[in-house]
Amino acid sequence: MISVQSPGAFTTVQDLGRPGYGLVGLSRAGAADPVAIRLGNRLLGNWENTAALEMTLLGGTFQFHHGADVAVTGGACGPAMWKPFRVAPGGILKFGPITGGVRSYLCIRGGIQVPLVGGSASTHMHGALGGLEGRALRKGDVLELGSEEASGVIRSGLRPEVLAALAYRSTLRVTRGPQADRFDAANLARFHSQAYKVSNNSNRLGIRLEGPALSLSDGAEMTTEGVPLGAVQVAAGGHPIILFVDQQTTGGYPKIANVITVDLPSVGQLRPGDEVRFQQVDPSEAQRLILDRETLLRSEEIFL
Questions:
Q1: In the predicted model, what is the mean pLDDT of the chain?
Q2: In degrees rounded to 5, what are phi and psi of residue 237?
Q3: What is the pLDDT of residue 222?
Q4: Among 13, 87, 237, 250, which is least packed by CB within 10 angstroms?
Q5: Is the pLDDT of residue 232 over 90?
Q6: Which domains does the chain have, with CATH numbers?
Q7: CA atoms lying within 13 Å on the CB side of residue 203
Q8: Which pLDDT belongs to residue 118?
Q9: Residue 201 bridge partners (DSSP)
Q10: What is the pTM of this model?
Q11: Can you tell me the distance from the alpha carbon of 110 to that of 69, in angstroms, rounded to the nearest whole number?
């Protein structure tokens, strides 16, 4: 088991989420940076979907009662990143501020054991379900670890060129949204050319962006409809919001674009004050990019 001596700014139990529940109003949740948690687990010989800790802005402090092999991935919050290391029985890991992103993942060989909801351990804060009692970790919490018996080979680390290929992007690639035609040419050009600033009022529900407001070419209201992960909605004030992992599953704001799947990990690493731009690509290019990335991630050649 591990004890939480300090939870950091905001730490939750996450895996790759619970897809398939949008029809009943429950978003996928799961790791904001799925590539980081997948690779952290693979480094330890875990299944990619093994539950880990997602730390935001400031890492926590954790004591390991019986020792464990761990790997820390995502934004940097300590000296040993992207490679496994051993924590001795009784050992304490203390993480500092997260840099080069906003979220880090503490993956543990054998994973974290919590009751599954909809087949997933991921915490959905706004639904108050999953993880540890549906909430962020608190000082004094104790987490049970899973058995290492079913785990595979521990790797030494990732090749530097792989980390370079997976570097986070400030220019997010998007496909055309279903209501893009409600914006005239000038507003579409503004959306794709200007830099936006990530608002302090951003979270796992959505990334709110600040910048020159966009306006509709018609003022008619639209009917509420289903919204996908990564949809870029333009709210009443004219400012875009990127719907994210804990998003609502329906919305009535026009969607000017949708962030492509391969760039969603970069969305998960945006921190308040960061600048972001949008670059439109064709759906065929979006599909090629995600297939290329999955081919890379599933290769054994990525490890040292």
A1: 95
A2: -80, -5
A3: 84
A4: 237
A5: yes
A6: 2-155 (no CATH), 171-300 (2.40.100.10)
A7: 12
A8: 94
A9: none
A10: 0.96
A11: 9
- Report d(CA 221, CA 252) in Å as an integer: 8
**Residues facing 12 on adjacent strands:** 54
Residue 169 has pLDDT above 80, yes or no: yes
CA 200 to chain centre: 17
Total Cβ atoms within 10 A of residue 23: 8
Contacts of 264 (CB under 8 A, 6+ apart): 34, 229, 230
Q: Is the pLDDT of residue 220 over 80?
A: no
Instruction: Check residue 219 and give its pLDDT.
Output: 67
Spatial strand order of the sheet with 142-145 comes to 92-94, 61-64, 2-6, 142-145, 112-113
The residue-averaged pLDDT of 131-147 equals: 96
Give pLDDT tens digits for 70-88: 999 999 998 899 999 999 9
Report CA dihedral (175, 180, 185, 189) to the nearest 10 degrees: -40
- Phi, psi (degrees; rounded to nearest 5) at 192: -90, -5
- φ, ψ dihedrals at 180, nearest 5°: -60, -30
Nearest to 191 by CA among 219, 132, 232, 159: 232
